[in-house]
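sorry for the late reply, my laptop died twice this morning and i had to redo everyting from scratch. anyway the thing you sent over, i finally got around to it. pasting the sequence first so we're on the same page, its 432 residues, then the predicted structure underneath. double check i copied it right bc i was rushing
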Amino acid sequence: MNAELEGLPKDWKVSRFDDLFDVQQGKQVSKRNRVGDNQCSFLRTKNVFWNRLDLKELDRMHFSDGEEARLALLPGDLLTCEGGDIGRTAMWRGGVECCYYQNHLHRARLKAPDTADAQFVLFWLWYAFEFGKVYFGRGNVTTIPNLSQGKLCELPIVVPPKNEQQKVAAVLGLAQRAIEQQERMIALTTELKKSLMHKLFTEGLRGEPQKQTEVGPVPESWHVGTLESVAVAFDYGTSVKCAHGEDGVPVLRIPNVLAGSIDLGDLKHGKPKPNELGQLRLEVNDLLFVRTNGVKENAGRCALYRGELEECYFASYLIRVRVDPAKATPAFVHQYAQTEMGRSFLSGRAIRTADGKFNINSGTLRRVLLPVPPTTDEQSEIAGRLDLVEQKLKHHQDKHAALSDLFRTLLHQLMTGQIRVGGIELPELVTS
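ok and here's the structure:
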C-alpha cells in the first residue's frame, strides 16, 4: 500500500475509483464528428479547472440521439481530465442546457450515493494529484502522459464514513469560497485602480479644462516633459555574482521588481565592488526599472524602493532613476509608470536582442514623456489616492495567499485523518 494510505483512521476504508463510480469517456473531436444538424455545446479540458468549470466559451459539434443519451450530464457528475494537467477535476452543477463533453474528459457518476460524496472525492483527487504522493509522486510530477479510463478506474480512494465525508467537503468548500471571494475582490480592485489611474492622469484633481498633448489629454495647467527633466541620476546596477544565503548584502534583481512593488521572496546576496558600495546603495524613493526581459511587456517594469531593507543594492539588469523631489514626486512618477501610456512608452521602445530578449537602456528612460502637475502637492495627492487603492489590493492579495495556505493545510490534514471534522476550529474567514 502507498505510504500516504497507511496510518489512516481505523473507520476509514480504501476503495478503487470504479467501485464508487461509473466512468464514461466523451466524444472524439474531429471534422467528421462536427458535421450534422444537431449542434450542441460540449466541454473540453480547457473548460475544467480544479473544483470549477469555466462555461464562458464552449465549443460545439453534432451529437446523435444515442450520443446525447449516453453522454448526458447530471448534477453531481465529476469531470476528470485525461491529459495535460492530468486528474484535474470539476463537478457538473448544470447551468447550460444540452451540454456534453469530449473524449479527453472522463465523466464519473456515483454508483451508490449513500456510500460516497462526490464533492469529497473531488477534494481527495485534488489532494492526491496536486499535493500528496498518492498516485504519481510529489506535486504535479507524473510518470504517465495521460490518465486513461483504465488507470482512473484503478486509483485508490479513501472512504471515511459518509457523514464525515460531507463535513470535510463542507469545511474545504467554505475555505474555497473565501478564496474565490478574495479573487473577485482582487479583480474588482485592479479594475478600480485602472479606471482611477486613467481619470487622475487625464483629468487631474482640480476640475480644469483639458488639452491634447503627446501623451493624450491632460489638465490645462500640466506640462509634458521628459523623465530626464525631473531626474538627477540614471544608474546601472552591479554585475557581481549573487547567490542565495547571507554572504554579502542584499541585491535586488529582476524577480524582485514586480509591477508596482518590491518582492523580497527570492532575495539573493552579493559583494559589490569597493567603488560601488556607496554609489549603488539604494535610497528610499529610488525608482527601479527592469531593462531586459524575455517578455516585451515586462521590459521597463517599474517599482519604487521604499526602504524595505536596511542596506540594499541592485543588479545590472536594473536601472535606477533618482528623481529630484523639488521637480517631481517619486511616487507620482512611479504611479505614472504603471499606466497604460507609461508602460507602452517603455515596452514599445524595447529593442529585441540576438538572444531573443527585449532591452531598454538609460537613453530610452531619459526620453520617457511624463505629464507633470504644476505643484508637487497635487502630485503627492494623486499618488496618495492611488496608493490607498494599492493598499486595498495588497490587503486582498495577502488574504488570498493566507487563505490558500490554509486550504492546502486543511486539505492535507483532513484527507490524511490528522484532524477530524468533529474537533476542527476554523480561523475567521471574513471576506471583507
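Residues 162-203 form the longest helix (42 residues).
thats about all i looked at so far, will dig more tmrw
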